[in-house]
Amino acid sequence: MADHLRKNLVYILLALFCIPFFFLNVHDSHAWGDDYSQYIKEGQNIANGKPFYRSGYIFNSHNEEYAPPFYPPGFPLLLAPVIKIYGIAIRPMLYFISFILSCTFILFYAYFRKYASNIASFCLAVIGAYSSVIIELKQHVLSDIPLLLFSTLYLYLRQAHRYKPLRILLIIICGTMAVLIRSQAVLLIIAEGLLLAIKTIKSVCDKSFTIKAFLTSTSLKVIAGSVFLYSIADKIIFHIPKTGYSFYAHLFLRNNGRWWHAIGDNSNILVELLKDLLSHNTYDNIWQAPIAVMCFACLVFSILGLVISIRKVKVDDLFYILTCVMILGVSVNQGLRYILPLLPVYLLYCYQSTRVALPVLFKVSGRSLAITFTITYLFLGYHDLKYATHKDDLFWSPYKPDDTGAFNYVIQHVSDSDIIAFSKARALTLYTDKKAVNIAPLMPFDSNKKWFDSMGVTYILTDPDVDEGLFLNYMTAVHQQSDTIKINHKYTLYKLK
Predict the structure, then answer these.
(1) Is the distance from CB of 146 to CB of 193 less than 8 angstroms?
(2) Cα 50–52–55 angle (5° rounding)?
(3) Within 10 A of 137 (CB to CB), how many other CB atoms are there?
(4) Contact, 326 vs 342, CB < 8 A?
(5) Do residues 295 and 369 share a domain?
(6) pLDDT surpassing 90 at residue 125
(7) Do residues 32 and 424 make contact, with C-beta atoms less than 8 angstroms apart?
(8) Contacts of residue 346, Cβ cutoff 8 Å, sequence gap at least 6
(9) What is the Cα–Cα distance from 496 to 437, expressed in whole angstroms?
(10) Do 351 and 475 sit in the same domain of this protein?
(11) Average pLDDT rounded to a whole number, residues 151-156
């Protein structure tokens, strides 16, 4: 019995460490932001058998910073069964995110186990899953944690000595699903192409190149299979419109030719993102310095780990580098969300470099070092974990009585054919099922009026707490004559003449 318990201890610990995920940052309401509402609306469409992209949200091409016309259908597809059973209730969706995080945590362990001992792999998995960025993200119905799951599973399956057909098929499915969840995952497939090119060039230089070896290479099979499977999803299953491509293209084209300055700015952003990937928030100033030291140390060790690992040239390394290059070229800072898929590779680099460097400096066993660092890391993140256990509804949320009252008024008094301009247009479409559009804040008010007139916008809904007075200023500037309906002390509905 004791031997059996000892052999399965790691799996018992993995299961125990999954339990808190279902109590951390799980709420009945959702913070404003309204990315989540577009995912939920698309999931609702899939659950009801409608085209996923017909959400009622009207894309304003003059305000491309706000949101794309639609999100890829992968995450809404995962949400659809939950929505079919529970409707648009937030808590069941957050439990679903918690379940995905539990799977990711176990997968972290399996991924690290290919390179490290049981104890080291478990400690690395705990550090990754209980990092503050993960705990904070899991209170949002967003695609980041599902993308982390599928990208990590892809990298886990991709590290093998032999690739049987079933394993290659699973890699293709995971890669395609990752791309369908978030477009940036196409870097996994590009990494395969780059790996194939490097190996081909090397074989040509070694005079060992053969057409048969090229055509039967794992990378080529994965690339061809992923393109084929994505094409089926694009053309047959989801009929993904092409109108969203312009939004993603503008992320790389807004530099106005000032690439040198943009790359310089983004280099600083990249360093900050990598440094903050394992950071904690703290409300006690005494712990800010240790956290800063820890973050900078991890950044240095990750760079050393990349140098150590890159000599073997794996998909993991190329995916890591390509993601960093993407951040250097993107003109919109999306924060840690863009870099989150690198978390397991980042931790692996830190482990590989510390395993080489620290025993030289300190006479301490790797097991003691792993356990000590993990306990220290969790201790430094105590404030974030404690805050995540709060059960109160979120303060800044569209679930307050004034918000729900305004949405109910819109449902009852606005026609389905009317278009409403609102700063959180996607949230409005989710909660009212009406058509909504946002304003372009960088465009002059009179130009916005011309665009609104051309689109047939009939209402303006204002909430100074959400739009910071932008719509009120717009109304004062160009729509002084209008029918005004004061819904409550927060919301005002203007009918345009």
Answers:
(1) no
(2) 95
(3) 19
(4) no
(5) yes
(6) yes
(7) yes
(8) 274, 277, 278, 298, 302, 320
(9) 14
(10) no
(11) 97
pLDDT in tens, 29-59: 999 888 999 999 999 999 999 999 888 899 8
Burial of 1 per CB tally in 10 Å (0-12, 13-18, 19+): exposed
User: Does residue 219 surpass a pLDDT of 90?
Assistant: yes
Q: Is 277 in the same domain as 176?
A: yes
The tokens describing 307, both together, are 């140098």
244's CB contacts (< 8 A; 6+ apart) are: 68, 69, 70
For residue range 300-330, what is the model confidence (pLDDT) as tens digits? 999 999 999 988 889 999 999 999 999 988 7
| Cα separation, 5 vs 7, whole angstroms | 5
Contacts of 234 by beta carbon, 8 Å cutoff, 6+ apart: 240
Within a 10 A sphere around the Cβ of 398, how many other Cβ atoms? 24
Return the structure tokens found at 45.
Answer: 């469409």
Same domain, 334 and 441: no
Q: Which domain, by its residues, includes 450? A: 401-496
Of the three residues 354, 387, 420, the one that is the final residue of a domain is 387
Identify the band that residue 369 occupies on the pLDDT scale cut at 50, 70 and 90: confident
Distance CA 252, CA 329 (A): 6
Q: Give me the number of domains the chain comprises.
A: 2
| Cβ proximity of 30 and 141 under 8 Å | yes
pLDDT at 347: 96
With a CB cutoff of 8 Å and minimum separation 6, the contacts of 254 are 331, 332
Domain edge (last residue) among 365, 387, 409: 387
Q: Which residues fall within 8 angstroms of residue 297, CB to CB, at 6 or more apart?
A: none
